[in-house]
Amino acid sequence: MNAIDNAMAGQLSAARLNANGALPNARGLDPQKIKETAQEFESVFIAEMLRPMFDGIKTSEMFGGGNSEKVYRDMQVDEYGKAISKAGGIGLADAVMREMIKMQENN
Question: Do residues 84 and 9 lie in contact, with contact meaning Cβ atoms separated by under 8 Å?
Fold first, then answer.
């Protein structure tokens, strides 16, 4: 690892949850709300990255298709994003939490 990788790893570990599963205490912030918001942001990001994979899938007119199929598929991709984020995600939520805390402390 180079110096940049070491610095990034240190920053990410600083934003991680402590042993009790709680965020580091910041002035007057609701740690649970920050965690939920960051996880929701990550789930939306993941869903948007997954969406193009499902756009190319064609359904048989006999068994589906039409507007209902598109609405259902969009909802399904959103749920995939939520499930992936809830299962640990891609690490984006940690970075978002860290930045949210930093922004609130600077105000």
Answer: no
User: pLDDT, tens digit, for every residue of 6-61?
Assistant: 444 444 444 444 444 555 554 566 888 888 999 999 999 999 999 999 887 777 77
How many domains, in total, are found in the chain?
A: 1
CA distance 82 to 75: 11
Q: What integer pLDDT is reported at residue 107 of this predicted model? A: 66
Its pTM stands at 0.65
Question: Which residues constitute the domain of residue 96?
Answer: 3-106
Closest CA to 103 of 27, 49, 10: 27
